[in-house]
Write a structure and sequence with these properties.
Elements lengths: L2 H12 L4 H9 L6 H19 L10 H19 L3 H18 L14 E4 L2 E4 L2 H4 L13 E2 L7
Parallel strand pairs: 2-3
Antiparallel strand pairs: 1-2
Organism: Methanobrevibacter gottschalkii DSM 11977
Protein name: UPF0305 protein EDC42_1316
InterPro entries: DUF2115
Length: 154
């Protein structure tokens, strides 16, 4: 499939997602966890990016990879979370967009090397990738992040 086809399918799949709920989490004082707020902001920005993205130089995306990502996300929700179907659909489509079209990490990132996920010298790095990539059906396999080198762990 072409990236432009996947992008249009993603737009259609999340069109009715209540994005204002997610955007409001960022400023809502009832949510105390800074990670929850950071993830809400990252995903709502990705949502906006999806609708602003125009693919000029279209490229191929392997249908089997798309199918595998969908299956692995379904496994994750079945094992760890449940939740409403609209949240599963949203997470699946945001992940497909970030991993295959935007080529960005699946988690929020910073520019400080002390952050769990960070951007440095033209690449994304994740401190947890080396550990979590071995988990069953790990989404790390699709993420653009590189493992953090030994010297950057400290």
């Amino acid at each position: 499939m072409k990236a432009s086809e996947l992008l249009e399918a993603i737009k259609e799949n999340i069109r009715y997602y209540p994005i204002e709920y997610l955007k409001n989490k960022v400023a809502d004082d009832r949510y105390k966890d800074p990670l929850t707020k950071k993830l809400a902001e990252y995903n709502s920005n990705a949502y906006d990016d999806i609708y602003e993205t125009v693919i000029i130089d279209d490229f191929d995306i392997n249908d089997k990879v798309v199918k595998k990502i969908r299956e692995d996300i379904a496994f994750y929700f079945d094992k760890y979370g449940g939740g409403e179907d609209e949240h599963k659909i949203f997470a699946e489509n945001i992940s497909l967009y970030l991993a295959l079209i935007a080529k960005k990490p699946l988690h929020p990132y910073g520019e400080n090397k002390k952050d769990e996920v960070y951007y440095s010298n033209g690449s994304y790095y994740c401190r947890g990738r080396i550990k979590y990539i071995h988990d069953e059906k790990s989404l790390c396999r699709y993420c653009v992040c590189k493992n953090v080198g030994f010297m950057d762990l400290f």
